[in-house]
Amino acid sequence: MTNMHARPRQPRAPARLALTLLALLAAASAAAAAPFFLPTGPEVHNTGDPRVRTDSQGGVHMVYPLVASAGAVYGYCPAGCASADDVWTVVFPTDDFGAVHNAMLALDANDRPYLLFATYDSVIYAECSGDCRQGGSWSGARIFHHDGDWELTGDAFTLDPQGRPRFLMHAYQAYLGLFAPEPGTRLFACDANCQDGDAWRVSTISEQSWLEPTFRYDARGVAHVATV
Q1: pLDDT band, very low/low/confident/very high, at 32 (cuts 50, 70, 90)
Q2: Closest to 140 in 3D by CA, of 115, 118, 107
Q3: 187 pLDDT tier (thresholds 50, 70, 90)
Q4: Over the range 74-95, which residues count as b (16 or more CB within 10 Å of their CB) and which as e?
Q5: In the chain, domain spans
Q6: Which end of the chain is more exposed for a tag (fewer CB within 10 A), N or C?
């Protein structure tokens, strides 16, 4: 995976062609902050669908793909987040694998973020050690390569109660079903050394394609999926 770039807080031009983050709550007053454009690192980009998680300290973790470019951005804003200048970003270029179609985020019990990116034919997993606001703390690798017959849609990435990553993929949905592969849904699971693609177990859990799934575990370790 190509190098990640971290952006510390610093003054910037206010105009950003990026996602607008609405209604962040100020921790002290519970009043909605004014909306602002999310940053995309040293270069300005439009952004795609975001995923947002709030940690136990009120910090806001975000991930969003770049539009008309190859990559995704992880953003962190501490409790009381009020402006783009409060947001730390790490940019993940994916030039070797193509544009990111879906970027997903999960937090473990210690508020540590884990990321999953899907391109046309690749799935990329990233995790951090140390200060996750810094690009040097992150490492990522392609863990699955396919021929375009599979898709990773919805909010299909999660951690189990032990903090181990899992995600769902379904068969590619061709327009009008023309030349479509056989339907199906797969579960990918890893318990350790998860940047090694061989460490992931793959099992078919349905002969139907579960589209746009939301995937979560409860405290007992029971998986729950909402899909269409």
Answers
A1: low
A2: 115
A3: very high
A4: bbbbebbbeebebbbbbbbbbe
A5: 1-145, 150-228
A6: C
Supply angle C-alpha 2, 41, 14, rounded to 5. 165
DSSP 181: P
7 has a pLDDT exceeding 90: no
Contact 188, 144 (CB under 8 A): yes
**Which of 107, 112, 113, 111 shows the shortest CA–CA distance to 92?**
113
Q: Is 0.85 topped by the overall pTM?
A: yes
How many whole angstroms separate alpha carbon 97 and alpha carbon 90? 18
Whether 132 shows a pLDDT value over 70: the answer reads yes
Please give the span between the terminal C-alpha atoms of the chain, in angstroms, as a whole number.
33
Three-class SS state of 37? strand
Task: Give the type of residue at 114.
Answer: Y
Residue among 114, 97, 118 at smallest CA distance from 165:
114
Residue 26 has pLDDT above 90, yes or no: no
Nearest to 91 by CA among 142, 129, 47: 47
Q: Express the helix, strand and coil content of the chain in percent, nearest 5 each.
A: 5, 45, 50
Alpha carbon distance 100, 66 (integer Å)? 7
The one-character DSSP state at 4 is P
Q: Residue 176 gets which letter from DSSP?
A: G
pLDDT at 174: 82
Contact 217, 160 (CB under 8 A): yes
Report how far residue 28's alpha carbon sits from residue 226's, in angstroms, rounded to the nearest whole number: 34
Which residue type, as a one-letter code, is found at position 174? A
